[in-house]
């Protein structure tokens, strides 16, 4: 992947302010490439890192990262072919079984993910699945609530990366397990909405093995001049497609071996 930045610093700041406004005030914006058709992935990440800089300056704390578009189901749903990463902060975390407001979200959708908590710092390039497993403290089930801020779900990878991979909220829970006690390729997951199964899958959907997605994330971080610090919470990407939610919906994600994660949505 080329991380070539073509936008001026001024344009990066403009786009960052646009994305930040859409996230904070929950309104849809046109995809950024409408105005900047030449935007590269490097430009997308420049906007994302500027957004992170502003959030940290405002007192948000980064808790980790997420890999996105790491499963075929997600790539097909989003019409893209390259994985992406985004940062996660303390403000995005919600407790298990909590009521999550949709008033401050644009197009909320939920997806089941395997999350990793790291005990050793990892840096790329050349990070492998084995390196990830050796550096993992434990894994746990998670539900990510993504929120594409682009109108009419019209976007491209550069715009999604600038919008921090649609990151909005996340809920970790269930039962934490040591990765070596599990076969992370064959974990079945079922998502229930209002008591009915809406989608299911197996963890191998994520690049054959979710630790592969974390290795890819570490290698993308290396291209951005960053490492993955010990203690990070990292989500490996949606196993199934994302399911739209609205006020009144309750969601339970059941993971084989890892227990379940539930939440409900309110106005
Ligand atoms: C991009 C976010 C992708 C995942 O797990 O694949 C993602 C989007 O779908 O808007 O978080
Ligand atoms: Mg996700």
TrEMBL record:
Q: Name the SUPFAM superfamilies for this protein.
A: FAH
Its Gene Ontology cellular component terms are: cytoplasm
The alphabetical list of record keywords is: Lyase
Recall the taxonomic lineage recorded for the source organism.
Bacteria, Pseudomonadati, Pseudomonadota, Betaproteobacteria, Rhodocyclales
Q: What is this protein called?
A: 2-oxo-3-hexenedioate decarboxylase
Q: Does the UniProt entry include the keyword Lyase? A: yes
Q: Does the keyword Nucleus apply?
A: no
Q: Which GO terms describe its molecular function?
A: 2-oxopent-4-enoate hydratase activity
Task: Identify the residues that the record assigns to the Fumarylacetoacetase-like C-terminal domain, covering every copy.
Answer: 95-265
Q: Cite the InterPro entries for this sequence.
A: 4-oxalocrotonate_decarboxylase, Fumarylacetoacetase-like_C, Fumarylacetoacetase_C_sf, Hydratase-Decarb/MhpD_sf
């Amino acid at each position: 992947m080329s991380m070539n930045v073509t936008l001026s610093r001024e344009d990066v700041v403009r786009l960052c302010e646009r994305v930040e406004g859409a996230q904070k005030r929950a309104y849809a914006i046109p995809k950024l490439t409408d105005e900047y058709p030449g935007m590269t992935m490097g430009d997308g990440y420049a906007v994302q890192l500027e957004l992170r800089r502003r959030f940290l300056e405002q007192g948000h704390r980064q808790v980790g990262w997420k890999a996105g578009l790491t499963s075929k189901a997600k790539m097909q749903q989003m019409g893209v072919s390259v994985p992406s990463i985004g940062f996660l902060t303390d403000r995005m975390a919600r407790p298990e079984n909590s009521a999550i407001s949709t008033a401050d979200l644009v197009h909320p959708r939920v997806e089941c993910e395997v999350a990793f908590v790291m005990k050793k710092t990892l840096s790329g390039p050349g990070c492998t699945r084995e390196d990830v497993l050796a550096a993992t403290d434990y894994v746990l089930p998670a539900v990510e609530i993504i929120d594409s801020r682009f109108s009419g779900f019209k976007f491209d990878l550069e715009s999604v990366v600038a919008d921090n991979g649609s990151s909005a909220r996340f809920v970790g829970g269930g039962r934490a397990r040591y990765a070596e006690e599990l076969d992370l390729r064959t974990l079945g997951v079922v998502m229930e909405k209002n008591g009915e199964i809406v989608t299911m899958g197996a963890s191998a959907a994520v690049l054959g093995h979710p630790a592969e997605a974390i290795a890819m994330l570490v290698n993308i971080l290396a291209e951005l001049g960053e490492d993955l610090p010990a203690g990070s919470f990292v989500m490996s990407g949606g196993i199934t497609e994302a399911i739209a939610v609205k006020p009144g919906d309750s969601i339970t994600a059941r993971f084989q071996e890892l227990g379940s994660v539930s939440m409900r949505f309110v106005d």
